[in-house]
Design goal:
Blueprint: H1 2-14, H2 22-26, E1 32-34, H3 37-42, E2 47-56, H4 62-71, E3 82-88, H5 89-92, H6 94-103, H7 107-123, E4 126-129, E5 134-137, H8 146-176, H9 181-184, H10 188-195, H11 203-207, H12 211-228
Parallel strand pairs: 1-3
Antiparallel strand pairs: 2-3, 2-4, 2-5
Helix pairs in contact: 6-7
Length: about 230
């Protein structure tokens, strides 16, 4: 039994690469790569994409096996099988743009085909990309989401309440000297006067709270006596 445990432990340790020399490390694709964003989107029809790439390949691929074994030491090594790239689609995948237009393929599929060809030529590896890939262009239009509508409606309601409260405070309350306190809470005039009032203006309100000082004194004396006795 001990021999089996030692054998399994040895196999586990042997599947982890602790260190690579410079030449071996250079054979792996870089974990991070960013093309120049502004230069990309400023060109005609420029599209820039942020892509999460998973490296895949055949089971007998020596490079992929080395990548997995090197990445296994998570304490000190990056995961070199998961890459984070920012690519200029119109530059890197220019040979695939015509294909996309002709066949109306999904953009993500076209990016994956482009990266597959590039990584196969350089490393003999294939790729899979995450579905949450984000692409930008200079003239990109953004669709309106339900949360955008909710926020816009809330802001509009607040503005309408401010307008109604201010008009109500200025015209109706000024004549009748009384009004709905809930609507007056949204009066810009009334809120502004409270915002800029001085200490003297607040004196009447502070007088009502002076009883709290007596309560604080009694509580402090009780605490002091409990410490002494």
């Amino acid at each position: 039994m001990k021999i089996v445990i030692l054998f399994l432990t040895f196999c586990r340790v042997s599947a982890v690469i602790n260190q690579l020399n410079d030449a071996e490390y250079a054979t792996m694709p870089p974990v991070f790569h960013l093309d120049r964003y502004k230069l990309c989107v400023d060109q005609t029809g420029g599209i820039y994409c942020m892509v999460e790439i998973h490296l895949v390949g055949d089971s007998d691929n020596d490079l992929l096996r080395m990548i997995h074994e090197y990445s296994e030491r998570k304490e000190t090594h990056f995961n070199h099988s998961r890459l984070h790239y920012g690519i200029c689609f119109t530059k890197m995948c220019k040979d695939y743009i015509k294909t996309e237009e002709a066949d109306s393929k999904d953009l993500l599929l076209v990016i994956e085909q482009c990266l597959n060809a590039s990584f196969w030529d350089q490393y003999k590896l294939k790729t899979k990309i995450d579905e949450d890939t984000i692409c930008h262009s200079k003239d990109q239009s953004y669709s309106t989401e339900p949360i955008d509508v909710v926020v816009a409606v809330l802001c509009l309601c607040i503005l309408l309440l401010n307008a109604a409260g201010s008009i109500y405070d200025t015209i109706i309350v000024k004549r009748n000297h009384s009004g709905n306190k809930w609507l007056l809470c949204f009066s810009i005039k009334r809120n502004w006067s409270k915002l800029i009032e001085t200490q003297e203006d607040r004196q009447n309100g502070i007088e009502r709270l002076k009883g709290l000082n007596g309560m604080k004194y009694v509580q402090s004396q009780s605490s002091f006596r409990s410490i002494l006795f």
